[in-house]
User: What shape does this take?
Amino acid sequence: MALEKYQKKRKFSKTPEPKAQAKIKSQSRFVVQKHSASHLHYDFRLELPDKIIKGPVVLKSWAVPKGIPTIAGVKHLAVAVEDHPVAYINFAGVIPKGNYGAGLVEILDKGKFKLLEHTSKSLKFELKGKKLRGVYVLTQFTAQKKNWLVFKVKK
Ligand code: MN
Assistant: This one.
């Protein structure tokens, strides 16, 4: 998906969000951003290569209406959205009215993660945030590719 979709949806003269950048540092960080847009949701982003194992590093992104569960076994819907540039990991602020995703963005948690297992349809990783800690799975629905489930597993 790379970053074309991200760029197309935004007018960078009108929103404080970061532009896509070519230069990126490969690390494994995650962020959860509370996004008070027309529908409140939580954006969960993992710093990973575009194609998970190769490609330019981006923030693979999911919109999670109910947020990332903290209790093992509780499954929440996570809707895949366009890749975001790595610089977005630090973004907090107000996206002005009339712009894509208008509303307040707040960082709820941020930290490192360790990718434990992956296929094209499933990721298993350990979150090392301040609030979110432990082993999680993100798994894609077979029928609807945009829809994933995120849940915490017991160690
Ligand atoms: Mn959002």
